[in-house]
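Aim 2 progress. For Helix-turn-helix transcriptional regulator, the working sequence is reproduced below.
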Amino acid sequence: MASNVNPTVRRRRLGQELRRLRELKGMTAEEVAERLLVSQSKISRLENGRRSISQRDVRDLCNVYEVEDQRIVESLMQMAKDSRQQGWWHAFGDIPYSVYIGLETDAESLRVYEPQIITGLLQTRAYAEAIIQGGSPEASEQENDKRVEVRLRRQSRITAEKDPLRLWVVLDEAALHRMVGSRQVMREQLEHVLEMSRLPHITVQVLPFEVGAHAGINGQYSILEFADAADSSVVYIEGVTSDLYLEKPHDVQKYTVMYEHLRAQSLNVEASRRLVERIAKEYAR
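Predicted C-alpha cells for this construct:
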C-alpha cells in the first residue's frame, strides 16, 4: 500500500459506524435496503466489513439516515476511499483468506489453538511448502508457491522490531507427531518453534494426549484483538470453501473462555518446551 492504511480494518470501522447510524435512526437493514432498492444482504455485508464500500454508498446511506453534520459525512466518505486501497497481500492475486490477513496485519494480539499442524506464523519454509502441497493436491505449483510466500510474509508481524504481534499458541501434541515433509523437516520445524517460543511476545503451550477430551475438541480457531477500542475482537474459524468470522460479544466471550480452559489443561511453558525438544531429538535419530 502507498500508506499505512489497512483497507480491511477501514471497512470494519466504517461498517460499524454505518450500523450505529442505522440503529440510531431506528431502522432495520431490510427497511434501508427497501429505501435504496438494493438487497438486504448488501446492507449486511457493508455493515460487517465483508464487502468493499463506495463513497456513493456512504452518501446514499447518510441521506437515508439524515446525517446533517457534513463533517461526519466527509469523514465516512474518506474512510470509504481508504477502504478501497489494496493491502500488500493483493499483489499475490486472489487469496481466499484475504479478509483474515487484513485483520491479522492490524491485530495487537492473537490467540490460536491448532489441533493438527504447527500454526502458520511459526512455520518454516520447508514445512509450509509440504503442508500447503499436501493440503491442496490439485492446485498448481504456481498457486502453492504463492500461498507459501504469503504465509512467510505474514510472519513479519511476529518478527517486527517495533510493536510485534503478541502471539499465544496452544498446539495439540498431535501437531508435533504428525510428520510433514520428512524427519529433517520436522526436526527443523520443532527447533524453530522452540526458538520462537523464547521471544518475550510469543508463548507456546502443548496440549498433551493424556488430557483426553478437552475444550478445543471441535477444532482450530483464532481470537484476534486490536489496540483501538473501536475495533471489536474477532473469532476466526478457517473452512475449506469459506471462513467464519464471529464478532458478537457473546460469541467472542464463549471462545475466550474455551481458550482459557485450553491454556489451563495444557502443559506450562517450560514443560511444553521440554516436550517439543524431546520430540525434535526423536526426529534426528
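The chain has a mean pLDDT of 86. This observation will guide construct design in the next reporting period.
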